[in-house]
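Forum > Structural Biology > Help requests

Title: Can anyone predict the 3D structure of dTDP-4-dehydrorhamnose 3,5-epimerase?

Hi all, first post here. I have the sequence for dTDP-4-dehydrorhamnose 3,5-epimerase but no way to get a structure on my laptop. I'd be grateful if someone could post the structure tokens.
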Amino acid sequence: MTVDVQGRSVPLAGVWAADLTTHTDPRGGFVEWFRASRLSGGTGVEFTVAQANASISKRGVIRGVHYFADGAGQAKYVTCAHGEVVDVAVDLRVGSPTFGRWTANRLSQAEPRSVYLPRGIGHAFVALTERAVMQYLCDREYVPGLELTIHPLDPELALPWPADLPRIVSDRDSSAPTLREAAELGLLPRYEG
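Reply #1:
Sure, ran it for you. Structure tokens for dTDP-4-dehydrorhamnose 3,5-epimerase below:
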């Protein structure tokens, strides 16, 4: 399967990706997927972990585009611990020079990489393998009811979902507004510059 994660991908202010190294020996492998000093050196952000999550997805599952409105939410640091995904960050910050644009990264256990997503950036991914395990570190605890979502198949966003995969989307995500509708409803975060 060929997935062009570059496509319309652009750099987004605050989003940072780091290639990781797998250390192997006869027992298997070891990957250090988070180090606070490395993230701080790459972003200038002091990241305190308040919550850790994992999601397990079947091939073709699309999760997101999830985000929080102003004043709420979580910055996230994500990696794919098992399988492979196309991970997408979408700039949802009204007033941002890259509003409505996205950046994509292929995340996999075979070629490990982690991505940092600041507040105001929407997050989504699609599982490319029969089983994909994503791990998330969050700088704040999740507050039920505050997380919002943009429809992951919004044609104006044109996210890089492979055409040859089944598309499995939750009811919540498939009934979500498009980016344009969310903007008109005043549901998006503001760009802080």
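The domain at 16-184 is CATH 2.60.120.10 (Jelly Rolls). The helical segments are 36-43, 171-174, 179-184.
Shout if anything looks off.
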